[in-house]
Every structure is written in structure tokens, then in C-alpha cells.
TrEMBL record:
Domain of life, per lineage: Bacteria
Record GO biological process: IMP biosynthetic process
Source organism of the structure: Candidatus Gottesmanbacteria bacterium RIFCSPHIGHO2_01_FULL_46_14
InterPro entries xref list: Fumarase/histidase_N, Fumarate_lyase_CS, Fumarate_lyase_fam, Fumarate_lyase_N, L-Aspartase-like, PurB_bact, PurB_C
Pathway assignment: Purine metabolism; IMP biosynthesis via de novo pathway; 5-amino-1-(5-phospho-D-ribosyl)imidazole-4-carboxamide from 5-amino-1-(5-phospho-D-ribosyl)imidazole-4-carboxylate: step 2/2; Purine metabolism; AMP biosynthesis via de novo pathway; AMP from IMP: step 2/2
GO molecular function, one term: N6-(1,2-dicarboxyethyl)AMP AMP-lyase (fumarate-forming) activity
Function description: Catalyzes two reactions in de novo purine nucleotide biosynthesis. Catalyzes the breakdown of 5-aminoimidazole- (N-succinylocarboxamide) ribotide (SAICAR or 2-[5-amino-1-(5-phospho-beta-D-ribosyl)imidazole-4-carboxamido]succinate) to 5-aminoimidazole-4-carboxamide ribotide (AICAR or 5-amino-1-(5-phospho-beta-D-ribosyl)imidazole-4-carboxamide) and fumarate, and of adenylosuccinate (ADS or N(6)-(1,2-dicarboxyethyl)-AMP) to adenosine monophosphate (AMP) and fumarate.
Keyword Membrane: no
Protein name per Swiss-Prot or TrEMBL: Adenylosuccinate lyase
Length: 471
């Protein structure tokens, strides 16, 4: 008989905790049930320390501070299981944690602190601070390093192919001339613009009681400025206080964070689709790895599965984000419980995103740019130079240049001979014709290289360790 409750990836409900669990282990210290318990315990213990000192007028002794800290440091899986046991009895996860904390304080000779546990605040104050903190730290320690690797991979690719001229396609048809490096630089620049927003997002939290009115504090000590007190407490976690709340902190701040991640993912979806199309066009080759197979039935296949997998994962991430944005900001009166169910899935878009970033990095390691195929395609589509011809003719006095070229070329695929014949038929001086044919050469345009250099410089400035280590 199979034990379906066995803790193994083979019986996991999703591939996130199944076949891909090893790729996502970096998220577990932030979003596992154990991590969620321990961080809330830390917030709870810190609050107890601060309010006890404020009301007693005396800071905890060094000995008491160490004993209180040991409550957090010595919280392991066996302790988390004890909390789960309590929760089964009381049917409330935060209350179970509070009861566990109370017992732990008593065992450590800190019974005098028990009355201060969560005094004046509610469970959602603890949750608000903990949630904002784990999103902030996971951004700095997990997501940003992964996004830096993606950005550096794009930077390397666009620099390597800075002078690889190729056909630019609009509406799926040959249209003009660009470079492979410049097209990758477009994605890099867009990504950096959004990463700047993502990196700088400031997380907010509340600590204003059960309905956000600080009402319970009046029964604690009405002479204390409790907004100032709780603001200092929130800031001690590197967060910004939010005073305008109900039982829960408005989710607007968190949804703005996820909307930035949504835009990052959308930029990368666009990039993955373009890379896939370059494989289709023959501009990219997927490297063959001898020990792998590309198809169970077709032995010749070598597929761009990592771009495809990244695209699918990013779509899943963005689908979850859309649900968050649509539902979390809506709060019936002072609170309903629907947000809790959704909030417990907050790791989903982060996990799918992280998995996709890893896939993009793998995909870029598995491709080669086929410069010969790109050059051949450019050679076979000389019609892509017609906008250059048009502009040259207009500036040299041929007023009907657009209509002239439209009549001769619309819908045609031009060879080198065809283009030369068109140029030589123009009412231009011989020297001008020679100059124009020289301009219709893939080595003449300096601007794509400048665009690449601009994007690479932007990435270097943004992704330096000084600017992007956000904890």
C-alpha cells in the first residue's frame, strides 16, 4: 500500500513541491508553514519586549533578553508540531502560536511577560508585519539574485551579437534591418526599467488593533501616543507604517508589488516568445546534449523546451497575480476571511516566477546564434533596405519616391540584383547611386550598437551590488 501522506516529492500535489521542489527550496525559509510560524513568533516576542519595557518603564535585563531570544532561536520543527496540536484544539493559528509562546515564556522564567503578549493588538497586526517582512526579505535574498542572473545573461547575449545584422520583421514579414544584439537589448532595457520599480518598492504594515482604530490601547494607557509607539515598532522591521486600516492592512501596497512582478514577467514572456520565433526562423540553434532526448517518438528532435517552460510558468505566475489584484483589495466592512485563503497562496506567483527565471537562464545556455543563417536571410530579402532607399531619394529631390517604390516593389521579395536595378533607375547622380548602394549595407548603421551599449550600461548601473541588495 502507498502511504499518500508520506513526505516525498513523488506524492506531492503539484510539481512545485514535487519534481521541481529542489529548484524552489530557497523559498521555503520564507513561505513554508514553519517559516510563517517562526517569523510571527519573532514579531510577537519583539512586541512583547517593547510594550513591556514601555509600560514598566524598564528595559529587559540582558539575561531576560537572551531568554526571550532563545524562544525564537530554539523554535524547530518539533515546536511547530506542538503549535499545530494546539491549533487543532482552538481552531485559530495565531491564537495557537500565542498559547505556545505563553507556555514557552513560563518555562523560561518569564511569566511576568505573559500579560503583555499581543496587548492592544490583534492577530492581523502580527500577520501584517510578518507578511510584509517575508515579502521584503525574499525579494532581496531570492528574487533579486535570480533576476540579476537573467539580466546579466541578456546583457552578455546582446553584447556578443552587437554587430549581427538581421532582417527585422513586422506583421511576420521582412520589413527592415536591425541587429540581433539590439533586439535583445530592447528586452534588457525594458526589464531594467521595471526592475528599478520592483527594487525600490517600500512595504507597509499596520499595528493598530482589531479594527484599525487603536481602541484597545485606551484601556492600556491613554497617556501614551500609541501611533508613535507602533510606528517605531513597525520601522524596526524595515517597514513603513500604515495608519489607514481595518482589521487588516489594505492590500494595495502588496498588490502594487505584485503588479510590478507581473510587468517583469510580461516582459520576459515577450522575450521567450521572440526567442522561440528565432528558433523557428533558424536564427537560433538549440544545442544538442548527447545524453538527452527531445521526443519519445521522434529521435531527431532538439526542442527549445526551456523557453517554452519559462513562458508557461510566467503565465501561471501572472494568472495568480491577476487573482490577487482583483480580490485582495476588496474588504467587506472591517474584515471578512476570504483574503486569508488567497493570502496562503501568495508564494505561488513567486515560485512560478523563480522557476521560470531559472529556465530562462538554462535556455540561454542551450542556444547558439546561427550567424550564417541570419546573414543568408538578410541576403535573400533585399527589400528590407527600401525604407533607406526611400529616405535617400526624398532628401535628394525625388518627391514621388514612396509611390515609385510602392509601384515597383510592393509584395515582392528582392534579390541583390533587383535592389541594384531599382537604385540605378532612380533620377540620381551616379555618385549618389553609388553612395546609396553603399548605405544599403549591413555594416553602415552605427545606432543599433549604441542602443546595445546604452542598455548594457543601464543594467550595470542598476544591478551593481550597492543598488540591488535590498533586505
Amino acid at each position: 500500500m502507498i502511504n499518500w501522506e508520506e513526505n516525498t516529492p513523488l506524492v506531492a500535489l503539484t510539481h512545485l513541491d514535487g519534481r521541481n521542489a529542489h529548484k524552489l527550496s530557497s523559498l521555503r525559509p520564507y513561505f513554508s508553514e514553519f517559516a510563517w510560524m517562526k517569523l510571527r513568533l519573532r514579531v510577537m516576542a519583539s512586541y512583547t519586549k517593547e510594550i513591556a519595557a514601555r509600560l514598566s518603564g524598564t528595559k529587559l535585563s540582558t539575561s531576560d533578553t537572551r531568554r526571550l531570544q532563545s524562544l525564537i532561536d530554539s523554535f524547530f520543527l518539533k515546536d511547530a508540531r506542538a503549535v499545530v496540536t494546539i491549533e487543532k484544539r482552538v481552531n485559530h493559528d495565531l491564537k495557537a502560536l500565542e498559547l505556545y509562546c505563553s507556555d514557552s515564556l513560563e518555562r523560561r522564567g518569564l511569566s511576568r511577560l505573559i500579560p503583555y503578549l499581543n496587548l492592544g493588538i490583534g492577530s492581523e497586526d502580527i500577520n501584517s508585519i510578518a507578511l510584509a517582512r517575508l515579502l521584503k526579505t525574499s525579494r532581496g535574498e531570492v528574487l533579486i539574485p535570480a533576476l540579476k542572473k537573467v539580466s546579466f545573461s541578456l546583457s552578455d547575449l546582446c553584447q556578443k551579437e552587437i554587430n549581427t545584422s538581421m532582417v527585422a520583421r513586422t506583421h511576420a514579414q521582412p520589413a527592415n534591418v536591425t541587429t540581433f544584439g539590439k533586439e535583445v537589448a530592447n528586452s534588457l532595457s525594458r526589464l531594467c526599467d521595471e526592475l528599478e520599480i520592483f527594487f525600490s518598492h517600500s512595504f507597509t504594515a499596520k499595528c493598530s488593533g482589531e479594527v484599525g482604530s487603536y481602541q484597545a490601547y485606551l484601556g492600556v494607557d491613554p497617556s501614551v501616543d500609541w501611533i508613535a509607539f507602533t510606528d517605531r515598532f513597525i520601522r524596526s522591521f524595515g517597514l513603513t507604517p500604515s495608519h489607514h486600516a481595518t482589521q487588516i492592512a489594505p492590500y494595495d501596497n502588496i498588490t502594487r508589488y505584485f503588479q510590478s512582478l507581473f510587468r517583469i514577467n510580461t516582459i520576459l514572456i515577450d522575450f521567450c516568445k521572440n526567442m522561440w520565433l528565432y528558433v523557428l526562423l533558424g536564427y537560433l540553434r538549440v544545442k544538442k546534449i548527447e545524453k538527452e532526448v527531445g521526443s519519445a517518438g521522434m529521435p531527431h528532435k532538439v526542442n527549445p523546451i526551456y523557453f517554452e517552460g519559462a513562458e508557461g510558468g510566467l503565465e501561471m505566475a501572472n494568472g495568480s497575480i491577476e487573482t490577487f489584484v482583483r480580490t485582495l483589495p476588496i474588504n467587506r466592512l472591517n474584515r471578512d476571511f476570504s483574503d486569508s485563503t488567497i493570502r496562503r497562496n501568495i508564494v505561488l506567483p513567486l515560485a512560478y516566477s523563480l522557476l521560470s527565471y531559472q529556465s530562462i537562464i538554462d535556455a540561454l545556455c542551450r542556444i547558439e546564434v546561427d550567424t550564417e543563417a541570419i546573414a543568408t536571410d538578410l541576403k535573400n530579402h533585399k527589400e528590407v533596405w527600401l525604407e533607406t532607399v526611400k529616405s535617400y531619394g526624398i532628401t535628394h529631390g525625388i518627391s514621388d519616391m514612396y509611390d515609385r517604390l510602392k509601384k515597383e516593389t510592393r509584395g515582392r521579395v528582392l534579390s541583390a540584383g533587383d535592389l541594384e536595378e531599382i537604385v540605378r533607375s532612380l533620377p540620381l547622380k551616379l555618385s549618389d547611386k553609388r553612395e546609396l548602394l553603399t548605405l544599403c549595407n549591413d555594416s553602415q548603421n552605427p545606432y543599433p550598437a549604441r542602443i546595445v551599449e546604452e542598455a548594457v550600461g543601464k543594467a550595470k548601473r542598476l544591478l551593481s551590488s550597492e543598488n540591488s541588495t535590498i533586505l
